[in-house]
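ugh finaly. both done.
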Amino acid sequence: MVNVKEVPAEALISEIVNEFKSRNVEIPEWTKFLKDGKGKEKSWTQPDWYYTRLASILRKIYIKGNIGISRMSQEYGSRQDRGTKRYHPVQSSRFIIRYMFHALETMGYVKKDKAGRVLTPAGQALLDKASRDAMKKAVENNKVLEKYL
């Protein structure tokens, strides 16, 4: 049995992104005008950043367990350029994370708990299936990883 923690993050996230694209997850219109937070100067350059962030949030909820909006915004935070002063850590946009949590809740992958957001059985099944598929693709490139299957 392949575990989500054993699969390379990039491979797993790309599998989940492909799953979201095949299910035609709707991207809001306002996403092309936003940037990630105070620490960023420009908006995203990747056309499918929304899918990637959704998949990454789903993976982080699996790994870290109960997690809320504030903690997740710290996870995606960056450094703010303050001119000649030292860099200062800042949080990412909590609005984007809150909206993505709501989107994952409506898809049925995440539910709200007292301590934060947790995965539902459907979300865990999606991640397990994606990790199995990602590991099969990784084994084709590197036979050493065959022991994880």
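ok and the 2nd:
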Amino acid sequence: MEILDRLKSIVGIGKATIELSQVDSAVRAGTELHASVTLRGGDYDVAVQDVRLHFDEERMVYTAQGRGDFAFWQQHASITIPLGRTLGKDEEMTLPVVLTLPADLAPNAEALRYVLVAETEIPGLNPKHAVPVEVVA
């Protein structure tokens, strides 16, 4: 049955998901960023070793004249929450998290933004969710 479950997850059927919620929308450099991470089981049990959160800086890059898009620049803070457990079918688990931001962060600008990313590794999947966060002066 495990092979069938992996095939389902590859095409996105009944897969487990990860989602960020209750994220502080505006923060100052050097303060704590609060959020909640919710893991939801799919149609079958999956092993979850840990959940990783990282606070990334993205900058505007230009791939063609006049056409820019934001791309990963650097990671400023991260935390790993060890779980080492099985997420049951249709089970939901919510974890409150706090991430301390560095004191030298520049505020958001036209060509600079920040995102909070939550991800985990599940066999056959790598669920990930990102939420923009504004760093204010």
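summary for the 2nd one i guess: The radius of gyration is 17 Å.
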